[in-house]
Specification:
transmembrane helix, MetI-like, cell membrane, 252 residues, mainly alpha, 2 domains
Length: 252
């Protein structure tokens, strides 16, 4: 939609203009504020790419996102399926899962480091822990909302368990699972930056700390903008995936 895209561009331009005006006003009383402006961030971006190996840090962060999401899907979809399918298990596990879901993933940071050491393993754990809950809940909701007539039809045709799962449950819960994945991706991207402050030597979170320690404030702002841009693109990809494979066709 060209009109919608044009409005989006205008909105972003307005935010940048307000940002520039705010920094310009603050810079009159504090010279340091000028380093946080959009122009300074844009000028720092080439050095950030060449000297600080920005692309390598982006790849490290995306790898961790991929591993964390894959672990969350591998654990969350089967767990959500069982919870949605068997009422007794839902009643037994729901209080514990709701309790764990309400604990901030960042609260586990000290325990993760003490248990798994420094490096990637605790980051993977925190990301998987953060992403698993929307996937579990969406999958369980999808199983519970499957049309019982399809289940009865499969059973009347003497379908095996594998056939029921593949031909009835998988198509029936696909939209819900993809919704959970999209929500999980948003949570992952938020948790990623503080999680990458756990003794790793690469990633966008590490780069935030590095630019802060070097007092390279224009580069710090540039990294923040890169994080926002990448998050936007990842969410766009997740939405496109949902509309491609998960959206239900409308019936006239």
């Amino acid at each position: 939609m060209p009109a919608r895209a044009a409005l989006g561009v205008l909105g972003l331009a307005a935010i940048v203009a307000l940002w520039w005006l705010a920094v310009a006003a603050l810079a009159r009383h504090n010279a340091l504020a000028a380093q946080f402006g959009p122009l300074a961030a844009w000028q720092a971006l080439p050095d950030l790419i060449s000297e600080d190996r920005l692309l390598a840090h982006i790849c490290a962060s995306l790898r961790r996102i991929g591993v964390g999401l894959a672990c969350a899907i591998a654990l969350g979809v089967p767990l959500g399926f069982v919870i949605g399918r068997i009422k007794a298990i839902e009643a037994a596990l729901s209080p514990a899962l709701q309790f764990l879901r309400m604990i901030s993933p960042l609260s586990w940071m000290p325990i993760a480091v003490m248990s798994l050491g420094v490096g990637d393993p605790p980051v993977y754990f925190l990301l998987a822990f953060a992403a698993i809950w929307p996937i579990v809940m969406s999958t369980a909701a999808g199983v519970q909302h499957i049309d019982t007539r399809w289940v009865q039809l499969g059973e009347s045709l003497a379908a095996t368990h594998a056939e029921m799962i593949w031909h009835v449950y998988v198509p029936g819960i696909a939209a819900h699972v993809l919704t959970g994945v999209r929500l999980a991706v948003g949570v992952l991207w938020i948790v990623l930056v503080p999680a990458e402050m756990l003794g790793v030597s690469s990633g966008l979170g590490y780069l935030i700390l590095d630019t802060r320690d070097r007092l390279a404030y224009p580069e710090l702002v540039a990294v923040v903008l890169v994080i926002g841009a990448l998050g936007f693109m990842i969410d766009y990809a997740a939405r496109s995936l949902y509309h491609r494979f998960g959206a239900q066709p409308t019936q006239d």
